[in-house]
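Memo to structure team: turn this sequence into structure tokens by end of day. - J.P.
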Amino acid sequence: MMQGPQLTSTAGLTSPSRMGSIMKQNKLSYKISQFLMFGGPATVLFFAVVVLPFFYGLYLTFTSWDGVSTKKPFVGLTNYQAAIADTAYWQSLGRTFVYSVIAVILTNIVAFLLAYLVTSGIKGQNFFRAGFFIPNLIGGIVLGYVWKFVFNRAFVAIAEVATQTDHASLLSTPNGAMFCLILVSVWQYAGYMMLIYVAGFMSVDQSLKEAAMIDGCNKGKAMWHVVIPLMRSSFVQCIFLSTTRCFMVYDLNLSLTKGEPFNQSVLAAMHVYNQAFVYKNYGTGQAEALVLFIVCAVIGLLQVYVGKKGEVEA
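Reply from structure team:
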């Protein structure tokens, strides 16, 4: 009499559906524990360093906090109205746009040519890859001070010796200062973008280029009609990264020009910093930072959308 129920209970515990649900639960708990072990700390840090400060900054845009007082009076949309009326901010944003367009184009052209050079089979190409990448490892503050010495002392001394006349530094004029910012940015970012283009070159099947050459294409046509279309994803990544870097540049702007001469080289990120931390207008500075973030996000996402759409069509 007792054996029947015991056999039925044992059979129910070891049924395939029961075993399957137990295995799924064990697998899910294993994945959760693995994520908490490896991704948990990074997730906590991401929320603590990125997400929470973002929403706190968004809250500050509706206050008139001066950075010192414990009170944060609510002022509604006043800070956004002040940001819209701030002509200096829009001028700095316009300079940032011009700087970013020129720097992004030149950076990607130089990076593409460097990548082509170090994948063409020249001797010591691995050494050249490391050498071209090194400028990206130098911090923007250090890089700015080094190049400031070069522009103010080295280039001026060379020009004076060559022409036997006095010469002013390029950093002493508004156009010269912007030219210096663009030049140093290209020098810094090109090595990093080069690595992405190198990966793109190496991902292209050599047989496709050989087939194009057999069909009558020269190297230039094979590059334009075969290699470059297949590297579209590399172009999308490099243009996106260089665009976001240029729009958010601050350290190089601070150490190389400090916004001089006459605040004519102040870019948007520096203006936002000055508004918040120098003039103590945290609410207005946060509002202008949010506008800058939206502009950068829209441009970046639009560029990625257009690039990805073209990639699918290719």
